């Protein structure tokens, strides 16, 4: 169960600096990448200002944001529905193992229950992040058979060298 006094809510513009900082910490913890602060803050602000891209949820305790996650969408022609991707998950280290991610994910599922076009949830996790993988499995998610590939446009700079 989450710690007492934790509130889950949709992120608003004033939350952007905290979310951007969480994203920077998460990228360094999981991939040892140092995201460019101005790029990640602009990205967070763009998402908050454009709900068609998706949304952020934040977990707040005693006036402090202690965790967040982002949801984006993917159209599935196989299912004639929308898959929600859970991304940019971060919980402050001092608040981990207290059910905060569970509360955030439960809120994602609750919001989706009001949208009949949503047919499921996906996320990706670093191969070595065993603790996160255990958490996702415990919440009913299953590992897939897919690998992920990407190609970024030349010249795109989002982290320090």
Automatic annotation (TrEMBL):
Domain of life according to the entry: Bacteria
UniProt GO MF annotations: acyltransferase activity, transferring groups other than amino-acyl groups
The N-acetyltransferase domain, residue ranges: 6-161
Species of provenance: Leucothrix pacifica
Pfam families: Acetyltransf_1
Descriptive protein name: GNAT family N-acetyltransferase
Annotated keywords: Acyltransferase, Transferase
Keyword match Disulfide bond: no
KW Ribonucleoprotein (keyword) present: no
